[in-house]
Amino acid sequence: MDRKIRMRNAGTFLLFGAPSVVAFLAVVVIPFIVGLYLTFTNWDVRTGDNTFIGISNYIAVWQDTVFWTQLWFTLKYVFFTVIIANAAAFFIALVLTGGGRGEQWLRTGFFTPNLIGGIILGYLWQTLFSQVLPYLGQKYGWSWFETSWLTNTDTAFWALVITTSWQLIGYLMIIYIAGFAGVPNDVLEAASIDGASRMATIRRIMLPLTIPAIVICVFISISRSFLTYDINLALTKGGPFNSTELATYHIVQKAFLSNQYGVGQAEAVVLFAVVAIIALTQSYLLKRLEVES
Amino acid sequence: MSIRQFLPSLKKILLYVLLFLFLTPFLLIIMNSFKSTQQFVENPLSLPTGIQLDNYVSAFDNMNFLDGFLNSLLITVGSVLLILFFSSMTGYLFVRFKWRVNGILFYAMLASLALPFQVLMIPLVMLYGNMSLLDSKITLLFMYLGFGVPFGVFTFHGFIKGIPYELEESAFIEGSSRMRTFFQIVLPLLRPVFVTLIVLDVLWIWNDYLLPSLVLLSPEHKTLPLSTYNFFSSYSVDYAPLMAGLIMTIIPVLIMYLLLQKQIIKGITEGALK
Q1: What is the pTM assigned to this prediction?
Q2: DSSP A59-91
Q3: What is the dotted CATH code of the domain comprising B55-273?
Q4: Where are the bilayer-spanning segments (chain A) (predicted)?
Q5: ipTM for the complex?
Q6: How far is the alpha carbon of A238 from chain B, nearest alpha carbon, in Å?
Q7: Which segments of chain A have a pLDDT < 70?
Q8: Which domains does chain A have, with CATH numbers?
């Protein structure tokens, strides 16, 4: 009897669970474990070499000044992208939360860039930055735009920030709108009866009551922009002179072009740790500002 | 018109102007995709002289648009169906059978949601490369299943938990099997979850670049983002067909968006708030 039940249970598990579990183990769990192991070996596709070399790869990461320069570059890029995208999304969401007619259309419109993959978006902006803006700059004498932004490290940096923000804004806007919808009406009415100005209402009521939405949005924008690859590849291709390679770009190059799988994987692990620490710290700090309505 | 009546419509006009500016990059590319490269370089702001489809024809041929489109379609539809089918069943299994192994697997899946693709890509290429499984659409489908299952199971799990067991019990009493009960009673109730997951997974897989670029190596397997990349790398100065290529790649998603606008916005909101 006991045996029969056990057989039936095993059957149920195989039927309902096996395909997903096998795929999950083979694609996520095993590569994750192998990946950790890989950071302690000198695995090489060409030689087939696979010896345990201790923490040499991590020491190599530590000494790879290019990696740290690019990680710092990535940090700055994340910082500005998160601030610009969130500020813009917050205010667009704010003006689009009045229940007026046509709002649905406006939301749809602002969301559109988010539907498009990073490669296509990157090329779209590459065309604008390298062709359209210099044309305008030369024609109207706007010195800012006279040369392509993509040929100079500092301006290429802003090109990356603008393109990424452009994509993120619509997505964050949707979350902020959902957050504003949760602000109770009676609180807003009470504020308006007390004669609170629009600015005061935003600062004293909307902002504190939408902290959960802000936490989510900042979290999403940090983790997404830290891991940017497609936009980087299509917009600047790491140039000029490899000066705009974001962390993921660097890791892909390291592993698949220089064939340094172990070091590349160790860098990926370091990147993951950095993202996790920053994203969790911000959630913790921002959550402390949360209030009950 | 008093100032009180005037202000809201002014706000609305400003918003539409803002939206117009926001979407200017698209509009410029659309406009210039109908001009020749020379006309574009001379003046990117000039209006096209007519509807010329030369660029579209040239892009369609040179980037193997049809192949890319069909590959993207096959991989997206295939992966999404696999993810939905198997993760709904596994979500059900995890809710209805509180075995230890199920609990461990469920928490492993939950934890894996925090893992970025970046920490998995190198070992993935290494392992599947060693087994000579790369450069195959089947492998890519399998990988999307593996990457899609954790979020799928998590979402279905959350929803199925709220379905009362009595519904299924009465089916069992009438002699229905576990499998039949799941497909006839539980599955139809999961519609809202299906919509959310379809939206999120389609957008993710259709637009994905990094994973297919590592797995699909031969030209005949390439998906649209990959063929766009190749097209831009090899035709980097002939802008007119390139822009037409971009617009063509955007159109399928845009059509889907216009048709399913409400569901997409809803799906995105629910996906993000989880």
Answers
A1: 0.93
A2: HHHHH-HHHHHHHHHHHHHHHHHHHHHHHHHHH
A3: 1.10.3720.10
A4: 12-38, 77-98, 110-136, 156-184, 205-227, 268-286
A5: 0.92
A6: 14
A7: 1, 45-48, 99, 292-293
A8: 62-287 (1.10.3720.10)
